[in-house]
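Support case: user asked for a sample of complex input and structure output to validate their parser. Sending the pair below.
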Amino acid sequence: MGNIVTAINLRKYFPIVGGVFRRKIGDVKAVDGVTFTIKTGETFGLVGESGCGKTTLGKTLIRLLDPTSGKILFDPEGNLPEDPKIGERINNYDISSIKGRKLKSLRRYMQIVYQNPSTSLNPRMLVKDIVAEPLVVQGLAKGKEAEERVLQILERVGLAREHLYRYPHEFSGGQKQRIAIARALITHPKFIVLDEPTSSVDVSVRASLLDLFKELQKKMGLTYLFISHDLSMIEAISDRVAVMYLGKIVEIADPRELFNNPLHPYTQALFSAIPIPDPEVKRERIILGGEPPSPANPPSGCRFHPRCRYAKDICSKQEPALIEVKPGHYVACHLY
Amino acid sequence: MEAILRPDEQLRVKDLVVRFYTYEGIVKAVEKANLNLKKGETLGIVGETGSGKSVTALTILALTPLPGKVEGGSILFKRINGKVDDILKLSEEELVKLRGREISMIFQEPNAALDPLYRVGEQVAEAILSHRLPEMLDRAIESLKEELKNGNGGFSSKLQLWAYNEMKKNPDALKLKLVKKLPIIGKTISRKLNQVVRDEIIGLLRLMEIPDPERVVDSYPHELSGGMQQRIVIAIALACSPLLLLADEPTTSLDVTVQAQILDLITRLKERFGASIIYITHDMGVIAEISDRVAVMYAGNVVEVAPVIELFKKPLHPYTKALLEAIPRPGASFKSIPGTVPNLVNPPSGCRFHPRCPHAMPKCMKEVPELRRITKEHYVACHLYGGEGYGKHSDSD
């Protein structure tokens, strides 16, 4: 299997304006030089604390936000070359600066499901109109045909014909999220960004949504970018996981490897903080002092060095590169 | 048997019934809930949204949110003076003394719990001044006397000394009110007291492991991160060393690393202040970490109570089992609980879990199961298990 999305040195800065003339006085470096690839058909988990740039990264990848610099390669067929060399071929797939009609035609292949369905669904629209909207916008189907396709997709996510003529407020949280999923799936996308899709629902509903994601992935050949701060859930659902800290990816590995053998000191601290649902196991906690620094003014060198227990001289001077220390296990730390 | 608690008991909620009168009908939010809490113990309450866990906590403070009404039951609480009172029967005056002093609460959203218009220091001071004024006055008087003895104090010290002694006699005296209105003098009067309170607050913030407390006292809530805000809320809650601390999902809106810091803090403070804690959450991991005993709530009923290790090792109620299986684990497929939380306007008859229960029997649809004692400290409300009634045991023991 090839790759579906590749980000090369991707950056997204948000300007800070101030003063009388609203001049730019700085940048919030939400995503700051991120390089990774997502393989076709996998679930790529993205974890990190709030404010580390996970959502910005997800939105930038599908061009809901315009990147400040860097390249995004996307191939709906899922056949990106394994090692894209700079040159002709890369530009064929580069979507980081395409615009207008070209971008719109690609939108049907990339979709997003947001965190809170009560705010991402228009309360004044009927379910059938909400779900059919992408079809209408893309000019794929209208009227009777659109309704037929809406019905098909609703049945797929576990809703039925009787739900067509209802408003979002008539549904429970889990059902609303299913409507949002149906809307994302109606154009038969290839790549879906799931931005904390289960954080607004209860434990018992959460499990059924995760099951649904797995099932849909198998049946429709989807690739997910699964953003979450719930580490145990990421561990359970992902094929590979990336850990983000302050706009940078610090570690990528498959979940079992990452949880059993975390290499980056931040990953270690993050995982030791997960409460274990077993009262007899008492794990040694690495309590991180302080809080993440502001992304407007990140620390020099390795961004984690002020909170790191292994910090050395080099850490405050030089930024560590993301290197492969074991097959498939990448880490950005001077210790390795 | 009126108003009696066992010597090691701090609180007992008995057959509590809370109903909400809404347009859609009567929401039976809490139905015959039974809980008890020992001194110095942490009781975890788990349940999904709408299981009545927050309503129960608020009712313990006699703050049942409108349009809710307490329709029955009692909440026995051992007061600071050793007397046992039914909170639901206390007068509003008594409740004001109780809230914040003997029982206090930490809420889920720290930025909603703090007033954005007041500095952190003022908000902590409010709790201290309303419950610990005499103590603070004593400290201020002590320090003023010291000053006068050393010959540093002038007229203003004498004035403050007079005012504080008056305040100790009667804080609402008319002459004090008048003096406070005077220009300059009015401000001078509270100078020492403010200083004493400020020192107390800074000490308290330091206990909460807040870095640079001198700066934080003078900042507004929005200048602080979520974790810091929650520490402030905890500081307010612990300002008067309460007997009982109600924590309603205090870490749900925080990141795991910050959650770990806060849980660690709560555990250590509990030892220091010797308070009992009721910790409400839906996260089984947090429950395993922090509680001594666990009560599982479902649709307004307490369905199982057990020591934490026993609950995780040998869950009895089918709902508890399902809840434990719904925790995502790597490798295993997720087991969701079929169906949804019932609408409490028209809850299922009999056992409220029966429509989702894999072991439902005809009896479950008709009879409401009582919370029964199975082993020494393990109680369950399910027809699958026989045993003695809960009420019988706790009275005789």
